[in-house]
Specification:
The structure holds two protein chains of two kinds. Chain A is mainly beta. Chain A has a single domain, classed as Ubiquitin-like (UB roll). Chain A contains one helix and five strands; from the N terminus they run ββαβββ. In chain A, a hairpin with a 2-residue loop joins β3 and β4. Chain A has a five-stranded mixed β-sheet with strand order 2-1-5-3-4, with no helix packed on it. By secondary structure, chain B is an alpha/beta fold. Chain B has eight helices and ten strands. Chain B has a five-stranded parallel β-sheet. The longest helix of chain B has 21 residues. Classes of the chains: A mainly beta, B alpha/beta. β5 of chain A pairs antiparallel with β4 of chain B.
Amino acid sequence: MAKIQLNGKKVFIKSNYSLFDLLKKHRLISKKIAIELNNSIVPKANYKKKNLKNNDKVEIVHFIGGG
Amino acid sequence: MKNNFLKVAGKILKSRLIVGTGKYKSFSETAKAVQASGADMVTVAVRRVNILDKKKPILTDFLNPKKIIFLPNTAGCFTSDDALRTLRLAREMGGWKLVKLEVLGDKKTLYPNMIETIKSTKILSKEGFKVMVYCTDDPLLAKKLEDNGASAIMPLASPIGSGLGLQNRINISMIIKQSKIPVIVDAGIGTASDATIAMELGCDGVLINSAIANAKKPILMAKAFKDAVISGRNSYLAGRMSKNYFAIASSPKKGLI
């Protein structure tokens, strides 16, 4: 188990949990989002190999309506 | 007529009207208004995904970025660092290099912080971004943006969402006359005729959000803006008649009974 911060909320995840697993759990399509892990952008190609560890800070963003 | 296409950072837009996608009652209304406007380009914001509600509809369910150009913005950013972070994320999301930069300076007026804006334009251009820049209507600062690699100058007509229309025609005209890159009036337009006036001055385009989304019938207003922009552009190209202090009769005097 590890505790991470996902979009400002505390979330518990299993060990050896990748960003890819996290997207799958939240039913998010990688094409439509971008991820920042501990303040640096993770290229889409690295989602599977990037495992999360305790106290990681993850931000997942997408496009919404705006002017 | 190639004169009637807007070219920004190598992209050809058939419509000189760019629309925002905020403030609508639903995504379905957003999509219908965008379609009625005839715009090829829409602005979008970058925000956190709602991780608690997986079933909530999202913008891209209604607008396809393959069919319409998404122009990511930095709305809500008050520092250069925040704006850069947002646009780098936007680029990672879909590979977009064409972006709208806005660095705000004050919560009440939402006036752009031009010092941070110029700084960000310089950095983004060096990173390969094509930056369309929301700015004040100061000709000197507009020139600075151009010198720092901006792809389009987007001066405000009046404060964001105010609907006060084009308040400083002289400055906008000066910016148009001096700029080698497109000038697109962004923010403050209140109704269709404001857009026509901007286009008649020689603006290359207008960016509208609130005036359409906050109209009583947004889809009809989107159509009104489409026509207003075409009309204003044609009027600009046609060249208006000169003004006279006194009347000049339209009917000939010859043959008068």
